[in-house]
C-alpha cells in the first residue's frame, strides 16, 4: 500500500498532465454523473471553489445544476492560522476573492454552521475503494466534516479511478460517494454502479 505522500505526488503529477480542455470536459461529465446521486431532495449544499493552478475539478457545472434546482449553496473561507474553515451562503451579491493560497473565497456574508449542511462536495487528490480520501495534508476538510451532521452526505469528485486501498487514521472521515467522469462509486452500499 503506497503511503500518503507517494500518492499525493502521483496524483499531482497526473493532474499536471491534464490539458485545460480535458479538465473542462471531465468536469462537465462529473456534473452530469452527479445528477444520478440520491441527494437532490436536500436544501443546503456545500461546494468547493476550485484552485485552478492545482487543476482541480471545475465545480462551475455543479454550481449551475444547484442554482437551476434553486438550492442553497454554501462555500468556505479557510483560516490557515487556526486550520479551520468558515462557511458562507453564496448569494448573487457575494464577493469572491482569490486568497494568498490561490483559493477563491467569499469576502463575507451569511455564515452557515456545518450542522446545517446536508451534502458536501469534497475536494481530494486521491481516494481508495474504502471511501477514504487524501487531500493536501492540512486536515481542513477532516476537521470540517467532523462538525457536520451524522446524516450529511459526503461526495468526493475525482478525474481518476480509486486506489485499491488507502491507509487511513481514525480521525479521517470517509466519503459516501465519489463521482468520476465515467461512474459513481458508492462506499456505503458496497456496490459500484456504472
Automatic annotation (TrEMBL):
Q: Which InterPro entries match?
A: FTHF_cligase, FTHF_cligase-like_sf, NagB/RpiA_transferase-like
Q: Which protein, by its recorded name, is this?
A: 5-formyltetrahydrofolate cyclo-ligase
This protein's cofactor list reads: Mg(2+)
Q: Which reaction does it catalyse?
A: (6S)-5-formyl-5,6,7,8-tetrahydrofolate + ATP = (6R)-5,10-methenyltetrahydrofolate + ADP + phosphate
Keywords for the protein's UniProt record, in alphabetical order: ATP-binding, Ligase, Magnesium, Metal-binding, Nucleotide-binding
Sample GO molecular function, one term: ATP binding
Residues where substrate binds? 51, 56
Keyword flag Nucleotide-binding: yes
- Record EC number: 6.3.3.2
- The answer to keyword Magnesium applying to this record is yes
Residues binding ATP are 4-8, 133-141
Family membership: Belongs to the 5-formyltetrahydrofolate cyclo-ligase family.
Give the source species: Aequorivita antarctica
| Gene Ontology biological process | folic acid-containing compound biosynthetic process; tetrahydrofolate interconversion
Amino acid at each position: 500500500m503506497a503511503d500518503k505522500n507517494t500518492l499525493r505526488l502521483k496524483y499531482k503529477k497526473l493532474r499536471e498532465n491534464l490539458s485545460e480542455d480535458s479538465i473542462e470536459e471531465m468536469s462537465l461529465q462529473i456534473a452530469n454523473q452527479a445528477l444520478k446521486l440520491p441527494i437532490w431532495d436536500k436544501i443546503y449544499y456545500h461546494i468547493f471553489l476550485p484552485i485552478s493552478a492545482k487543476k482541480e475539478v471545475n465545480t462551475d457545472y455543479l454550481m449551475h445544476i444547484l442554482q437551476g434546482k434553486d438550492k442553497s449553496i454554501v462555500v468556505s473561507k479557510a483560516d490557515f492560522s487556526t486550520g479551520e474553515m468558515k462557511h458562507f451562503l453564496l448569494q448573487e451579491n457575494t464577493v469572491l476573492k482569490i486568497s494568498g493560497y490561490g483559493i477563491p473565497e467569499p469576502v463575507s456574508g451569511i455564515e452557515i454552521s456545518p450542522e446545517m449542511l446536508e451534502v458536501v462536495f469534497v475536494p481530494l487528490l486521491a481516494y481508495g475503494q474504502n471511501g477514504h480520501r487524501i487531500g493536501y495534508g492540512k486536515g481542513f476538510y477532516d476537521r470540517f466534516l467532523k462538525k457536520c451532521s451524522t446524516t450529511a452526505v459526503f461526495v468526493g469528485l475525482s478525474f481518476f479511478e480509486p486506489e485499491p486501498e488507502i491507509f487511513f487514521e481514525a480521525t479521517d472521515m470517509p466519503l459516501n460517494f465519489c463521482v468520476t467522469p465515467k461512474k459513481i462509486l458508492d462506499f456505503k452500499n458496497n456496490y459500484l454502479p456504472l
